[in-house]
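My main concern about presentation is that the manuscript never shows what a single data entry looks like. In essence, backbone conformation is discretised, so a fold becomes a row of integers matching the chain in length. An entry of this sort, consisting of the sequence and the corresponding backbone structure tokens, reads as follows:
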Amino acid sequence: MNQDPVAVLGTTYLGVVVAVYLIPGMIAGIRNHPRKGAIIALNLLLGWTFLGWVAALIWALVKPTPVPVSQTVIYMMPQSDGTTQPVMPPPVLTSAANPYVETWASKVPLWARLVVLAFVAFVLINFARH
């Protein structure tokens, strides 16, 4: 089976374009960005415009600023005379260090791994036909 080289290059080019198109969503997933759903939606809906793709990429790369949460808990201890007195909160029990060691593969979402796997299989199948 002799394939047309232009068709093979065209399908390979299409696969590369789709992979590059999805880069902002993959980065947001790998970094576990708190707004990864919105980044993926922006990428899919407006990524075809260069401005939408760049906006999604920048949003995926920007480290989110944590919002400081101030919470004061006052524990009141009833006294024998019927009044209450503020007391220190109970100590927070900490567990031992988590033995689970994260690797880069554990941070990559399943959909991104499947996209990469499909792309690699697509390229290998196209080049194996020659």
